[in-house]
Design a protein that fits this description.
The protein has 394 residues and is an alpha+beta fold. The protein folds into three domains: 112 residues, Acyl-CoA dehydrogenase/oxidase, N-terminal domain (Butyryl-Coa Dehydrogenase, subunit A, domain 1); 107 residues, Butyryl-CoA Dehydrogenase, subunit A, domain 2 (Beta Barrel), CATH 2.40.110.10; 148 residues, Up-down Bundle (Butyryl-CoA Dehydrogenase, subunit A, domain 3). It is built from ten helices and ten strands. Strands 1-4-5-8 form a four-stranded mixed sheet, with helices on one face. It has a four-stranded antiparallel sheet with strand order 2-3-7-6, covered by helices on one side. A two-stranded antiparallel ribbon has the order 9-10. The longest helix is centred in the middle third of the chain and has 36 residues.
């Protein structure tokens, strides 16, 4: 085992941190207040080679693995989780093509994303369907070698500005996961309607919209996955992107902890710095240990993906744990700041609002626990002898 970052990863981390401090942090509050889409910042990230991290070198990308991506994500998220989401949604949108696209699709779409400043979004969720991917209603009807899409997608990050969207739809809702296919949708296609930005509690600089699809014709070359294969592709995509959600949460929590340390070493109460009180020290110690644990779990899940291993379980563990850590740490940060933590004058209230999303999107924390419990109850290998005779599994 080796937990030391290579010199290349250290250089990448330094580059991402400098970008976060120089380009993201100064405008984080502005975009949160206005709920504008931070397009200039995203374009700078593209110019710096920080936008399409997962695209292989063969197609002009940087070819970074998932571990490298998580290191970059943490740094950008520490400056602003919302802007970080806007930047790294291109990874989510492109991942299905990286995993499941044919050679022509990879050459055409991935190369375009690298060589031109274009955005690609990802669409599985619908107005009444979120984590239950198999329950989608958006319909895909085969017409010769082409498909026609009808339906609505919801919670689509960067959807209002995307040039492409990887859309998942079903040939028959009754078939559940067996009916799901995937498509590359050009947002300029006839019948595609991009909705207005949806106001949110946090991550307000992240553009979130609905996408309407009315008789949208998908040419043969943009069929990404045939019925049945689409569900598998969506699950593979999530397994590759959920560690990055852990990294988002870690960056958010890390900043909340650092602001708390700084405040505790300056604020006096009852004649002493509050950092000298054991109750505050305990809060900060818990923050640090939980962030360290979340980072290790996230790195493990990312490393497994980079090794070509099945990381579905580890990615669920990392996302569930790290998202809880972000929520707990930002809550405690507000407590340390006291009344000032509740004011928008200080940054911790924004981090608190931003953190909540990690427990919800790309599979809620409840869904992650279902994945984990299924393994523990059915796949986990016991070291200890069983207590008496085992009952047959049902």
């Amino acid at each position: 085992m080796d937990f030391i970052l290579t010199e290349e990863l250290k250089a990448l981390q330094k580059k991402a941190r400098e970008f976060a401090i120089r380009e993201v942090l100064p405008v984080a509050g502005k975009y949160d207040e206005s709920e504008e889409f931070p397009l200039p910042v995203i374009k700078k990230a593209w110019e710096q080679g920080l936008l399409n991290l997962v695209i292989p070198k063969k197609y002009g990308g940087s070819g970074f693995g998932l571990l490298s991506s998580c290191i970059v994500v943490e740094e950008i998220s520490s400056a602003c989780p919302g802007i970080a989401t806007s930047i790294f949604d291109n990874n989510l949108g492109a991942e299905p093509i990286v995993i499941g696209g044919n050679e022509e699709q990879k050459q055409r779409i991935l190369s375009e994303l690298v060589n031109e400043f274009k955005l690609i979004a990802f669409a599985t969720s619908e107005p009444m369907m979120g984590s239950d991917v198999a329950g989608m209603k958006c319909k895909a009807v085969k017409d010769g070698d082409e498909y026609i899409l009808n339906g609505n997608k919801f919670w689509i990050t960067n959807g209002g500005y995307a040039d492409y969207i990887t859309v998942f739809a079903t040939i028959d809702p009754e078939q559940k996961h067996k009916g799901i296919a995937a498509f590359i949708v050009d947002t300029k296609s006839e019948g595609v309607k991009l909705g207005k930005h949806i106001p949110k509690l946090g991550q307000r600089s992240s553009n979130t919209v609905s996408v309407g699809l009315k008789d949208v014709r998908i040419p043969k070359e943009n069929v990404l996955a045939k019925p049945g294969r689409g569900f598998v592709l969506a699950m593979q995509t999530f397994a590759h992107t959920r560690p990055a959600i852990g990294a988002f949460a870690i960056g958010c929590a890390r900043s909340a902890m650092e602001y708390s340390i700084d405040y505790a070493q300056k604020r006096e109460a009852f004649g002493r710095l509050i950092g000298n009180y054991q109750v505050i020290q305990e809060k900060i110690a818990n923050m640090y240990k939980d962030i360290e644990a979340a980072r290790l779990l996230t790195y493990k899940a990312a490393w497994e993906a980079d090794q070509g291993m099945d990381n579905n379980l580890s990615s669920s563990i990392a996302k569930a744990f790290a998202s809880d850590v972000a929520m707990n740490v930002t809550t405690e940060a507000i407590q340390i700041f006291g009344g000032y933590g509740y004011l928008r004058t200080y940054p911790v209230e924004k981090l608190f609002r931003d953190a909540k999303l990690y427990q919800i999107y790309e599979g809620t924390s409840e869904i992650q626990r279902i994945v984990i419990s299924r393994f523990v109850m059915k796949g986990y290998e016991h070291a200890m002898p069983f207590l008496g005779k085992r009952r047959n599994k049902k």
